[in-house]
Design goal:
Length: about 350
Amino acid sequence: MSPINTSVLLIYTGGTIGMIENAATGALENFNFEQLQKHIPELQKFNFPIDTYQFDPPMDSSDMEPDMWQKLVHVIHDNYERYQGFVILHGTDTMAYTASALSFMLEGLDKPVILTGSQLPIGVLRTDGKENLMTSIEIAIARNKEGKALVPEVCIFFENHLMRGNRTTKINAENFNAFRSFNYPVLAEAGIHIKYNNVQIHANGEEHKLKPHYLLDTNVAVLKLFPGIQENVIATVLGIEGLKAIVLETYGSGNAPRKEWFIRRLCQASAQGIVIVNVTQCSAGMVEMERYETGYQLLQAGVVSGYDSTMESAVTKLMFLLGHGYTPDEVRDRMNRSIAGEITI
């Protein structure tokens, strides 16, 4: 087999990093990658080729849809043998969803796929985009003494921290430290040197062949509990035509109201084949339904634990599993297993 090129494919989807201010309206608008390169002449200083692939037109991440995740998987799969790593420039709003989805869709990944972006456009003097992009490229090319990728995972790099993609949530719309991995340690920290947390990074053991997945089923809903939630709200959501799965955002360690109608509605939905996954509304911590009676009742109603999953990861994992035609019981079983390091069992 011919040696892999020491090069990176930079995939530009859009987002704030590639926006410029409209002089007339003051609104931020997308511009193309050639203009982006003009604002980052430092890219020329890398002593390896950086090729680019651009979404045309560039898209705001709030418009991101599963078919775009499929497109990204196609681009990575089609170019997999030609590059050492991949850097995806992406808007911050849905970056954690895309990173989570790709972690499931790229089975057998043994190269870095790093998502990054910025809070300020690249043309702005104080932009965080340059640092995020330059460090992401450096991480994408990093190898150990055996020549294997240091970080063979789908990750998000933002504000000096490299995080596992399916553990990450956007927590701030204003500050540069926009993302946090609450339930899993960061994989690397970038200061003067990039310090890798090798113990936490997915072990790159035997060589794997990349197996791309494209099947997704979006018949999923998110239901967030709050004090005073009415039965008709629960009934309406659970009664959505074609619904196959619910991510139920509960209180604390997976607790919910003990109202008779609430438990009955969940029992009925589970019996009809709707998969209900319990994740906590808390930023950090995990669901432990056996801990309190309120959680135990959910367990009895057929609700499955989401453990310490992020909401973004739970949603995309359900789409992934449902897309592959598993039965409700098979989906429930696989939600209780780690596919790509997304939960701690």
